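Hey Z.,

So I finally got round to the zinc ion thing we talked about over coffee. Here's the setup:
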Amino acid sequence: MSKTLSVSAIQNGTAIDHIVSGQAFRIIHLLKLLDKKYQVTIGLNLPSKRLKFKDLIKIENYVLTDAQANDITVFAPEATINVIQNFEVVNKITTSLPSSISEVIVCPNPVCITRTEPVKTCFNIETQGKQINLVCRYCEKTFDRNQVLYSSL
Ligand SMILES: [Zn+2]
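And the result:
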């Protein structure tokens, strides 16, 4: 095992590595990890050769669905998602950018109907080169991934 581990290893579960630094909390909310009673270890601003700084999330005894893994790529396109069994990586989840993302993410437009009516938010995902934008299906406004808010539910 590497001597340079800065976040403790997990026996079984999922490790989400190479998250662009600053996105870990969006992903925690996206996966609704605060509602679930899983053990979660978070590393923030860890040194990374590829990204310079990265965030990392490890979730004990929980394996992401493919849809959850794809949702993560909206906020962390370079993330690597590994399934861990007995401290070993047994599967690397292959992700692709989803065409839309719903719930959890809150539209930043204060007059969007989703801010006042009890409707589930839904955003279409559009890319322009490396830029990933979210387009609200209700107010049709376009937002950078760093602009969108998340609900605490
Ligand atoms: Zn909207």
